[in-house]
Amino acid sequence: MQSNRRKFITGLGTAAMFVPQTAFGANDRITYAAIATGGRGRGVSRLFSKLGAQCLAICDVYQPHLDLAQKDSPDAKPFGDYHELLSQTSGLDAVMIASPDHQHFPMLKAALEAKKDVYLEKPLSKTLEQSSQMIKAVRGSSQVVQIGMQRRSAPAIHQAKELIDGGVLGRVTLVKPQWHWNISAKLDNSPLPGKLDWKRFLGSAPERDLEPMRFRRWRYFWDYAGGNMTDQGTHLMDVVQWFMNSGAPKSAVCHGYVAKMEGAEHPDVFSAVLEYPGFMVTWTLDYANSFQNGWSITFMGDKGTLILDEAGYKVYAEPWRRGAEPVHQQDAPVPLDAHIQNFLDCVKSRREPNCTVEIAAQAVAGPHLANVAMVEGRKVKLDPVNYKQNTPAAASIATAAHV
User: Fold this and answer.
1) Cβ(274)–Cβ(281) under 8 Å?
2) What is the DSSP letter of 259?
3) Residues 6 or more apart from 87 whose CB is under 8 A from it?
4) What is the largest CA-CA distance in the chain?
5) Residue 399: pLDDT band with limits 50, 70, 90
C-alpha cells in the first residue's frame, strides 16, 4: 500500500520519511526471532524480552548456543537455518541479528525479503561495497532497521554533543578515540564441544576445513570480519562524526600488528590516522594494556577539551593546567536497553530509529578504509558517494590472509 511506503531524499545520511499509520495498539506485544545466539545475541535477546517483546524463534549453527538460548526462551522454536526460520515462523514482527560480520548482509537481505523489521548488530557491513548494497536493500523495503550502535540512544552523549554544538570547545582540530583492554592471548584451537554446522557458519565465505579458533574467535579472521578496527571502531567513529557534523573521512593510513593474540590475522594493537576537512582523527587500540581501561574519545579544541568515556563526560577549559577541575561533567553509562527500546517504539510508530543504515555506513567507512590502508601499506582515499576506496585495493582484504 502507498501509505506504507517511505519517501526518501537520496544521499548519504539525508533520509527523510513519511510516517504511515501503524497496526499496533499501545499494549500490543512485539514478536521477534533471535538469529545467532552466541553470548552477544543472547544478551541482546534477553533485553528484548525484558522490554516486553516475545521471542517466537531462535536460530544458531552451534547447538550449545541454541541450547542456552532455549533456556532463556523455552517457548521459542529452534532452527539451524535462518531461511527456514523466516519461512516457517508465523506472526513474526521483527528479527534480531547478532551473527559474524560476513553474514550481516545476507541475513538482513533475507529478513527484508520476508518483510520483517530488523535490529542488526554492528558493524553494518563486512566491506565498503556492502554498505552501499545494504542501504539500497533497506531503502527498497518498507521495514524499520536499527543498527546496534547504542551510543545513539544515550542521553549523556546527546548532552555532550549539545555542548560541542554550543561552541564550548571552539575549533576542534584533533580527535583521539582509543580502546585499551589487557585481554590478548593465544587463540584457543582445541576441539569444540557440541555440534557445529560448519558449512552454514561459512555461508559465502571461502570453503576450508574447520579450525575451532576460527569459530570461537571469528572476529580475528579476514574471511568473517574486519577485526577490532571495525568492531570497536564503528562505535567510536560514529560518535566522532556525529559530534563533528562530518561525513566519512577523506583518507586513511594505518599500522598494526599481532602482539599477543597468536593465531589471529587481525592485529590486537593498531593506530589509524583518518583525514577530514578541518580536523584529523587518531584511532588507536591496544588489547595488551589496561591503562585508562576501556574506551574513550578526546575532542581537542582551542577553547576546551571534552573527554567522553563509558563513565560519562568531562570538559576542561583552555588553557589547561594540571589539576584543573572540569567546567562541565556528567556521569552516566551507555544504556543498551534504551537503544532496543527505541527500535521497539519505531516498530510500532514506523518512524526512523536512532541509528539508520546511512549513519552506520558512514560510521564503518573509516575503519574499513583503515583496514585496506593497513593491508596495502599506504594511504587510501575514499569515494564518499559509492563507498568504494579510490585505489585498486578492492581485493586486498579478501586475500590478506593468504598473502
Assistant:
1) yes
2) S
3) 114
4) 64
5) very low
Q: What are the sequence ranges of the domains in the chain?
A: 2-152+337-356, 155-201+212-334+364-402
58 in helix, strand or coil? strand
In the 8-state DSSP scheme, what is residue 75? T
Q: Which residues contact 113 (CB under 8 A, 6 or more apart)?
A: none
Round to whole Å and give the CA distance between 303 and 73: 52
Percent of the chain beyond pLDDT 70?
Answer: 88
348 and 30 Cβ atoms separated by less than 8 Å: yes
* 205 close to 102: Cβ distance less than 8 angstroms: yes
Residue 296's H or E segment, with its range, is strand 294-301
155-201+212-334+364-402 placed in CATH 3.40.50.1100: no
The Cα 130–Cα 387 span in angstroms is 9
- The string of pLDDT tens digits covering residues 55-78 is 999 999 999 999 999 999 999 999
Kindly report, residue by residue over 82-92, the tens digit of the pLDDT. Answer: 999 999 999 99
